[in-house]
Amino acid sequence: MKSSELVAALGRKLKTESKQALAEALGISAQTLVNWSVENQTITPAQVASALAKSQAAALRTFKQLAIQPIVEFYAIEACLTKQEKTWQLLSIGKDSTTYARGLKEALEGAHGIYIFYDSRGRALYVGKARQQSLWKEMNLAFNRHRAVQKITLVAHPDRNQEFQPGHEKLRQPRDQQLELADLSSYFSAYQVDDGMIDDLEALMVRGFANDLLNKKMETFANSKG
Prior knowledge:
Elements: H1 3-14, H2 19-26, H3 30-39, H4 45-66, E1 68-76, E2 80-81, E3 88-89, H5 99-109, E4 113-118, E5 124-130, H6 135-144, E6 151-154, E7 175-178, H7 181-184, E8 187-193, H8 198-208
Antiparallel strand pairs: 1-8, 2-3, 4-5, 4-8, 6-7
Helix pairs in contact: 1-3, 2-3
């Protein structure tokens, strides 16, 4: 096989846009690739095998670099009602919102991966994944979702217009109240994760911090048995 034929075939197969991109995908120098294209020399089986091995190593390096990418960490939640005023969303994206906040929303809309909600002290409350839909949509759904495990002992005070009565006149007993994640969360982090790793990374985090998180379901690893 002529070297120029191999280069052309690899470019079509790998759908690279330039010789430089193809060289990086194959794990060889751009000059080597240029030489193959120009000199049109005969490629030996050893050279093909070497190119395949280098390509595999280059693909592995790229995967390691891109498998988990932070989008935002410990971002302060500014909960606001949606336009329909039926649910809460993590941050305001209206006319008065910052360019930074709008950019963050766009990044979350275009990514899948793992997210974490934290309380006011920065302790992790809940870990979730977004594999079928975007991080933005899944995080807001989780932010409003009912969960029976989220209970805290509080006093229920009236929110209607009535006169205040001190505790010595009318004692209001502390009772367990169910709160939403929206009531408890103060910060969130989000990470773009390769689709093939999302399930296992979520399982690792939930199982590793099972006694600290509000997650009710104990996630399992994708390839585990039992």
